[in-house]
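> forwarded from #structure-qc
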């Protein structure tokens, strides 16, 4: 197997410059089977995967959810295999798959891992996600965080605390497997994994390979209820809240005045109606052997 490691040096809290040494040591008996490349800007991971697509068997994302999204966007629907060394702020997919948050351990596990085939989601047949597609406050915070020079969970939480009292929820017309809803939503999230990252479980019943997407429609709620909602988010109980409507579907259509959205934490500007579908068993990824 030939491995290409795609490292985002600024994901999360940084410190990825030690990764090449870890990889060199891990492949010391067969150095020609691994190569390391660093991304230089947003979108670069996609370019690298496409450029070296025929030269490697496994493409390993070393970074956060954004880097992961870029790699899966090229690999999904192909026979190539993805690897993951979580090194970002949220690391939703890595946590979902039981991959270690310690790079040296994740690398060791990677070399003895097994292949699992999982679902991905599609937005207007143009954008692909593996974790979630979100609207409302979800997207708003992703946009604030994207413009921030400070990375990491502390920065993310500071934006949530600052923006929550100021945010004005939007109304959406939603079609879920043909059934129509009109909802004012603080958060509208279509999820493939159960969590945003950092063990914040927006869709606690989501399963990565069940061929369906989980939908969380969170109604506006009083400021005083926020601590309860945070506890539910962390304890996998959000779906039982009276402010949350929880559904599943294979096809979701969203319309409304504000249709900006985020995919895997990356904000996308948009003013067109959105169709979201599941692409079952479309991505091959290495996971630790249990």
């Amino acid at each position: 197997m030939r491995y290409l490691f795609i490292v985002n040096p600024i994901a999360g809290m940084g410190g990825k410059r030690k990764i090449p040494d870890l990889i060199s040591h891990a492949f010391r008996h067969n150095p020609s089977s691994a190569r390391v490349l660093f991304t230089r800007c947003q979108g670069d991971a996609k370019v690298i995967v496409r450029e070296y697509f025929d030269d490697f068997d496994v493409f390993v994302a070393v970074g956060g959810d954004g880097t992961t999204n870029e790699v899966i966007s090229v690999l999904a629907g192909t026979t190539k295999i993805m690897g993951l060394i979580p090194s970002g702020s949220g690391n939703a997919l890595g946590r979902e798959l039981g991959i270690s948050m310690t790079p040296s351990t994740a690398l060791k596990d990677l070399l003895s891992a097994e292949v699992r085939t999982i679902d991905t989601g599609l937005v207007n047949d143009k954008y692909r996600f593996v974790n979630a597609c979100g609207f409302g406050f979800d997207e708003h915070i992703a946009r604030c965080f994207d413009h921030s020079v400070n990375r990491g969970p502390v920065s993310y939480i500071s934006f949530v605390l600052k923006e929550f009292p100021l945010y004005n929820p939007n109304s959406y017309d939603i079609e879920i497997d043909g059934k129509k809803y009109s909802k004012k939503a603080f958060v509208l999230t279509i999820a493939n994994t159960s969590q945003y990252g950092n063990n914040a479980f927006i869709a606690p019943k989501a399963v990565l390979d069940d061929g369906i997407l989980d939908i969380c429609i969170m109604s506006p709620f009083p400021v005083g209820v926020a601590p309860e909602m945070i506890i539910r988010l962390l304890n996998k109980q959000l779906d039982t809240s009276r402010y949350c409507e929880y559904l599943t579907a294979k096809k979701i259509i969203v319309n409304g005045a504000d249709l900006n959205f985020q995919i895997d934490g990356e904000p996308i500007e948009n003013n067109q109606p959105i169709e979201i579908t599941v692409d079952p068993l479309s991505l091959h990824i290495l996971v630790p052997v249990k």
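QC bot note: The two ends are 21 Å apart (CA to CA). The first helix runs from residue 19 to 26.
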